[in-house]
Amino acid sequence: MADGKDYFVHESAYVDEPCTIGAGTKIWHFCHVMKGAVIGRNCSIGQNVFVGSKTKMGDNCKIQNNVSIYDCVELDDHVFCGPSMVFTNVINPRCEVVRKDEYLWTRVRRGATIGANATIVCGSTLNEYAFIAAGAVITKDVPAYALMAGVPARRIGWMSRHGHRLTFDAAGAATCPGSGERYRLTGPEQVEFLGGKA
Fold first, then answer.
1. Nearest in space to 27 (alpha carbons), one of 35, 12, 19, 75
2. What's the pLDDT at 198?
3. Residue 73: phi, psi to the nearest 5?
4. Residues 116, 135: contact at Cβ < 8 Å?
5. Tell me, what's the pLDDT at 196?
6. Rounded to two decimals, what is the model's pTM?
């Protein structure tokens, strides 16, 4: 790590001080981290990423190339943002109207995945381990473990923490084929993680 710091910043990147960057984080080519940003430990910030000053990012987040994490976006631990996905911060932007005091918070909870070129409309919450397909447009809150696809996005299934699609039996139980962890449907739009192995 450069300059005695416990994180890495590529020489082509700009990091405005003061900000908070956790140990083991890597910030790659042509990135810009604004003053006041909070980035957790062991994150990977890919090429040409912008991180706003009112941004909070947890530990072990993976931000792929060409993503802007605007003000009022909050990422929990272990969030994956695919290449060129988009966050918005205003519902009704107009160039002639200044709306910086109207930004809406967008929250992405632990373990969620956002695919390449997806758009997350501001004010939405993506709950734990949600999986947003490439190119999807999210316009409302997303349940935990939901698999979302389309424009506007709708739920087309459920995903495990391990990243496998879940198939529920008649009793509403499912087992992740990758990890053996167990899940249960507790409502039409709700899945409960039971843990352990089947």
1. 12
2. 56
3. -105, 130
4. yes
5. 81
6. 0.94
The total of other beta-carbon atoms located within 10 Å of residue 170's CB is: 5
The SS3 of residue 114 is strand
Query: What stretch of H or E contains 113?
Result: strand 113-114
- What DSSP string describes 7-33? SEE-TT-EEPSS-EE-TT-EE-TT-EE
Find how far residue 187's CA is from the centre of its chain: 25
Place of tokens 């272990």: 78
Q: Which two tokens stand for residue 93?
A: 């932007």
Contact 167, 145 (CB under 8 A): no
Token code pair at residue 50: 């912008």
Report the percent of the chain where pLDDT is more than 70: 97
pLDDT tens, 84-108? 999 999 999 999 999 989 999 999 9
- Domains and their CATH numbers in the chain: 2-161 (2.160.10.10), 162-198 (no CATH)
